[in-house]
Amino acid sequence: MKTYKIYTLGCKVNQYDSGKLSAQLQAAGLVMAGKQADLAIINSCAVTKTAMIKSGRMIRSAKKENPGAKIALIGCWVRASETKLAGVDFVIGGKEIIKQINRIMNYESGIRNKIQNPNNKNNKIIINSDKSRYFIKIQDGCEQFCSYCIIPYARGGLKSRGEAEVIGEVEQAVKAGYGEIVLSGIHLGLYGKESQLLYSVIPASEPPRKMRGGLRITRPYRTGTFGREPAMTNYYNGARDENLASLLKKLVKLKNLGRIRLSSIEITEVSDELIELIKNSGKICRQLHLPLQSGSDKILKLMNRPYDMNYFKNKIKQIRRVLPDMAITTDVIVGFPGESEKDFRATEKFIRQIKFSRLHVFPFSAQEKTSAAKMSGQVKEKIKKRRADLLRKLNLKLMADYKNKFKGRDLKIAVEQIKQNKVMGKTEYYFDVSADKKSLKNKNIRVGQIIKIKI
Ligand code: SF4
Q1: Distance of CA 174 to the CA centre of its chain
Q2: Are residues 138 and 68 in the same domain?
Q3: What proportion of the chain, given as a percentage, has pLDDT over 70?
């Protein structure tokens, strides 16, 4: 029997893809290798230069760990790179991954017949993800073309799974004992929106751009929506019934569902309907991950982000009017080309003003094919590091301040770990807590369960 191993890098969407591929390979008759595998698959990440270096390292260590294996590369690097990578025997892209693997491994016909079609909509598979939380990919692709990001080139345009398919998989995850379901996607807020003509925001006078950042764009490029958000809302209405809010309304009605969390969405996609749903359903975690990236309008424009600071601030105010305790977490890039000390200070000030409950800080390290990598005003590594260190320090304070607000309150956690006498997990507000097992009424606690504890 042939054996395989999958090495995964990058985001939750990649992790989900690896889990799904693993289940499909097993259905096809392969066995997950204990030690050395016949086939080592590297699910790569190309989001930054650092991620690409890590992917290269992973290829080398997979080869070392599995000396006789065929090495196959899948994931974002496949489409983002034009060069053949050292150590890789096969580069697999597109939808027919299983069929391609089947050809590579040259299986006998009996096994080949058992291979599931990955595009079969009824193919519901429960993937072994983190035991406490079930990450489900409901959407893929992005058409925002932020100037520092390779993802739209690597993953292509917007694609959403149908509501029925998503609901079916969530039902199975709930049955399997997962307390928290995390809806994931590359551009999650645009779930169900691919049938709409986002491109209509391009002025008729502007010809579709064919090249950007040295890469070919096969679909028309959507211009930055900076300062155009009200119009954008209209473009997103109506053409397809399914959207994130409509899906959530159906999911929260599922029997025995613990709770749902949204992985990350753009601030421009937080609708009034979504805010009301979070408030009223009691099943959607009170946390929104809203990437800020910079607190300077000048830098946001260079990044081709779809909002300005005023918009961001007002939207947060609107969310907090309805949900004052809401956890707002974010991503920030420091040292983007052209980021002066003044721009950085504006970002720091804005972060303090908004009082985010958690920051993820990334020093700028663009993939060389993005337009940002070629911009003038590249910032020295030393300066990037200093700025990142400053914000990471600020993050520790923000996290502690936010958590302190909940002292004395009863909150529900999704149990992640039970070690000796301690039970650990995440609250719906996305901070970690632990409790003494003896202090809990329920003594039969298991990972994945949602339990109430005093903070
Ligand atoms: S929204 Fe921007 S940062 Fe996010 S995947 Fe799309 S292009 Fe990349």
Answers
A1: 21
A2: no
A3: 80
